[in-house]
Design goal:
By secondary structure, the chain is mainly α. It has 14 helices and no strands. The termini are far apart.
C-alpha cells in the first residue's frame, strides 16, 4: 500500500512538473523575443521605402510596399564589399597577433617563476581598467609620426595586445597540471614545443572564445578607424555605414539596409561560437 501511495504521488506530480517546464520555456521565449524585437523591426523596415519611414507606418502600408530598393542602393552606390574586406583584414590581424602574444605572456606567467611576476601581472590587470579614450591622442600622434595613417598596421596597432586576452589565457593555462609540464621536460619537450603541441591544443575553447570576443570588438571599432582611415579605400564597415547618415535628410531605409548587412556577420559569429564563448569565459573560474 505504501509503494502504491508513493507511485500515485509521483504520477500526480509529473503533469505539474511538465506544466512548469512549458511555462518556463514560454516565458524565456517571450523574453528573448522582446530583446530581439528592435532587430526584427529594423529588418522588416529595411525593406520599406524611406518616404514611409518618416512616420511610423501601418502594418498594411509595410506589407504593400516591401521592396529590395534599399539593398540595391547599398550594393550600387556604397563600396560595401571593400569596407567588409577591410574589416575582415583588420580582424584577422588583431586575432592572430593578440592570440599569439597573449599565449606567450600567459605561458610565462603560468609556468615560469621569476622575480616581479606577480607585480607585473597586477600591472596588466590595472592597465585593463584604463579607458582607451585616455591614450587616443598619444597613440594617434605616434601612428602619425610613423607614417602609418591609412594602413592596416595603423588600424591594428593599438589592439595587438590586451590585458583581457592575457588574463583569459593565463587562467586557462593554470588548469594544465604541472605534472604534465614536468613529464614533457623529462621526455625532451622544450617550452615552445610544449606550448604549441600541448598547451594550446588543450585550451582550444579559450582560444576560440577569445577569437570571437576579439572579432566582435575589432569589427565594431568606430572611433579609432575614423581617425586612421582617412581614405575611402581603407575605411572599415562601421565607418562606411556612417556615410549613409546625411547632414540634412536621412534615408532611414538605406541606413537600416546597411545596418542589417553589417550586423549579420557578428551575429552569425556569436551564434556559431556561443558555446566556446561561454566555456572560455568560465575557464579558470575555480583555480588560479
Amino acid at each position: 500500500m505504501k509503494i502504491e501511495k508513493n507511485s500515485h504521488i509521483v504520477t500526480a506530480a509529473a503533469p505539474k512538473r511538465k506544466w512548469k517546464e512549458r511555462a518556463g520555456f514560454l516565458f524565456k521565449f517571450l523574453l528573448g523575443l522582446f530583446f530581439i524585437s528592435p532587430l526584427l523591426i529594423g529588418f522588416v523596415f529595411s525593406f520599406v521605402p524611406s518616404e514611409y519611414l518618416n512616420n511610423l507606418p501601418a502594418l498594411q502600408t509595410i506589407l504593400d510596399n516591401l521592396t529590395l530598393d534599399n539593398y540595391r542602393f547599398i550594393l550600387d552606390y556604397i563600396p560595401i564589399f571593400r569596407f567588409l574586406s577591410n574589416s575582415f583584414i583588420v580582424c584577422a590581424i588583431i586575432i592572430l597577433v593578440q592570440v599569439l602574444f597573449s599565449s606567450f605572456a600567459a605561458y610565462a606567467f603560468s609556468f615560469f617563476k621569476f622575480r616581479g611576476s606577480k607585480l607585473l601581472f597586477q600591472l596588466i590587470l590595472v592597465a585593463m581598467m584604463i579607458p582607451a579614450e585616455v591614450t587616443v591622442i598619444a597613440n594617434y600622434l605616434t601612428i602619425q609620426n610613423w607614417n602609418l595613417i591609412n594602413t592596416y598596421i595603423g588600424l591594428c596597432a593599438t589592439s595587438l595586445l590586451g590585458g583581457t586576452s592575457i588574463f583569459m589565457m593565463r587562467q586557462s593555462y593554470m588548469q594544465i597540471p604541472k605534472e604534465l609540464k614536468e613529464a614533457s621536460l623529462v621526455d625532451g619537450c622544450g617550452d615552445m614545443r610544449f606550448l604549441f603541441k600541448i598547451a594550446m591544443p588543450l585550451t582550444i575553447p579559450t582560444i576560440a572564445s577569445l577569437a570571437i570576443f576579439l572579432f566582435i570588438s575589432a569589427y565594431n571599432m568606430y572611433f579609432w578607424p575614423m581617425l586612421i582611415a582617412q581614405n575611402t579605400d581603407m575605411q572599415t564597415i562601421q565607418i562606411g555605414m556612417a556615410m549613409l547618415v546625411g547632414t540634412e535628410n536621412v534615408e532611414y531605409g538605406h541606413v537600416l539596409a546597411g545596418a542589417m548587412i553589417s550586423i549579420i556577420i557578428p551575429i552569425a559569429a556569436f551564434i556559431i561560437g556561443q558555446d566556446y564563448l561561454i566555456k572560455g569565459m568560465t575557464s579558470g573560474a575555480v583555480k588560479g
